[in-house]
Fold:
Amino acid sequence: MSLRPSIDVPFAVGGTPQPRGRSAWFIVATASAACIGIAVASGTHLGIVLIVLPVFIAIVWQSPKTMIAILPVWMVLLGLIRRLTPGGVNITFSGDPVLIIGPVVILLLFFVAASRGAFERRTRFASAVGVLSVIALFEAFNPKQGNLQAGLGGLLFILVPMLAFWIGRTLLDDTLALQIVRTIAVLGLCSAIYGLFQEFRGLPPWDASWIQSQGYAALTVGTVVRAFGSFSSAEEYAAFLSISLVAWLALAHKDTRLFPPAHLAGIITVAVALWFESERTAIFLVVLAIGVMAASRLRMRPLGVLAGGVGAVVLLVVLGGHFGGGGGGSCTTASCQLSNHVATGIAGPLGSGSSLPGHIRQTEKGMLQAFKAPFGHGTGSVTLAASRFAHSRTGGTEFDPGNMGIAFGVFGLIAFFVVLWQAIKTAYLSAVLRRDVISLFALGMLMATLFSWTNGDLYSVCWLIWLFLGYLDMSLARTRAEIAAMPPPPPPISWRRPGEQRPLPGT
Structure:
């Protein structure tokens, strides 16, 4: 008897046809929502695991693609579910068992993908991702990070999301990928509405209790508490709003957009929520993504696409300096303080009021660590696992190059830059050749999350990046194989003059 998971077909007993299409989706969604509701009502995070995880495992076993479609919803609601559960205010990396559900599901989907040929037709890009993954696995046993627990915890933050690359290569198709893009757009809109409510109507009791228990300083701008939506941090909230805005813009294609006023309202709502979240790096990267998407849509050459992205950022800085550079400090309202915080950073991205120079210096120090410690400090050294299990003195730099230098050393840093180059190259070629919603969204998502692809704190975002990268890699490999398999064009017709001798074959 084979132990391999079944193919994505409805499970039938006794020959009775099972529901398909929308009815099947309704049943799955209702059952999943009921399980989550019961788990939350059970009052402990362990109860959530005991109820939700078996259901998700069953879905993975029966229909992996269905689980891929459900997983973004779970990841987005994870922080809110933990806060709504009694005793769930301790939401950091604290040994909370509910955090393991997402990684377990990704691991199971990875095994399914591996059994269905995820490692076949390996491209240079796939090989580079494989090398970086192996480095991350071996670095989990690096003694410099403190202990093995820190290394294994680091794998949950860095390696497990990367495994989604192989899932995307095998289990993602055009229909499912487009469905996920739409899901991201809708989830981002719902999160934006919730975040705006938090910002201007006040925090619900469960969110207020979490802030009081955590004392999370990054949530405050002056005297105002930043919104964080349904997520575990304001950083993750901003990152998801960024990719949601990219999704709304990609879906503006005439074949996929909603009724134009409704579609425009969705774009504006998410953009406004991102602005008032007051994460200036996210705004710069979203503008970069919009410029790159527009240039790719016009099928510009790589230099033109780069110029489009950089030009959009420069235009943002110029407009910010012209309209919003004042940044007065006498504001008392939330909207005024948050807007001034953003405007000051945009008008002077390298000025004293900006945190960008500090981030750059930290990233440089992290990259230099790759040469001081060529074999790195371990996978867990740049994640919350180090402070949880090892109390390590090392820490993350917020951007991938610095983190890779600290965690993986010089070899990991080189491997990361190879992956970075191959990822952008693959996304660009896909966007230029296909010009469809999926490829444009994937390219925009890469730009909107640039240098945050291995940031394990972004639970709901990082795995999606690698999922779509894997999908684009295999899609481009198939396209190249089809072109190579095409018969050569017929030889051109040659005309002979009257009386001219016919040329010999092969001449």
Summary: The longest helix spans residues 400-434. The chain is about 65% helix and 0% strand. Strands lie at 220-221, 224-225.
